[in-house]
Design goal:
This is Effector binding domain-containing protein. Pfam families: Cass2 (PF14526). With 148 residues, the chain is of the alpha+beta class. Helices cover 18% and strands 42% of the residues. It has one domain: Multidrug-efflux Transporter 1 Regulator Bmrr, Chain A, CATH 3.20.80. The chain is built from two helices and eight strands, in the order ββαββββαββ. It has an eight-stranded antiparallel β-sheet with strand order 1-6-8-7-3-4-2-5.
Length: 148
């Protein structure tokens, strides 16, 4: 169920909202709120943007985390007012597929897999959660952990 693999992702451009706050105290509740905020404004994106896939890059440093809820957008694309846009560099990632109901287990499996395969998590790079929105109780999620 939790098959892990190495994949490479090219640089991507994103637009959406972010939250920074104490970790782990504020999570996952604040992550859910920022995703809901993005979803409530998806109609403001141009029709060429896939709003059924939410990208959530995040970065944790000691006890502080910054978490994004974004859609992938073409470089230079106009973004709705009040949102942030940024380019995330490409990396090699350890990837696991799980669901929004099994995300904690997914993290456990991919982090164990990274260690067993002799990889090292890349410090200073964003991990990414990718949510495939289906308006169901259980939805597909992919976890990407940057490795070197």
């Amino acid at each position: 169920m939790f098959d892990c693999e190495l994949i490479s992702r090219d640089a991507s451009h994103f637009a959406g909202f972010s939250f920074s706050g104490p970790f782990p105290h504020s999570f996952p509740s604040e992550a859910v709120k920022v995703q809901q905020k993005l979803g409530s404004r998806k109609s403001e994106f141009t029709p060429n943007i896939n709003t059924d896939v939410v990208f959530s890059p995040y970065y944790v440093c000691d006890n502080l985390a910054t978490y994004f809820a974004c859609y992938e957008v073409p470089e230079g694309n106009a973004i709705p007012e009040g949102m942030v846009s940024f380019k995330l560099p490409g990396h090699t990632y350890a990837k696991v597929t799980c669901t929004n109901q099994t995300i904690r287990d997914g993290y456990g499996h991919v982090l164990d897999w990274i260690q067993k395969k002799g990889h090292k998590q890349l410090n200073g790079a964003c991990s990414i959660e990718i949510f495939y929105i289906e308006e169901a109780d259980e939805e597909k999620v992919e976890l990407f952990i940057p490795v070197e």
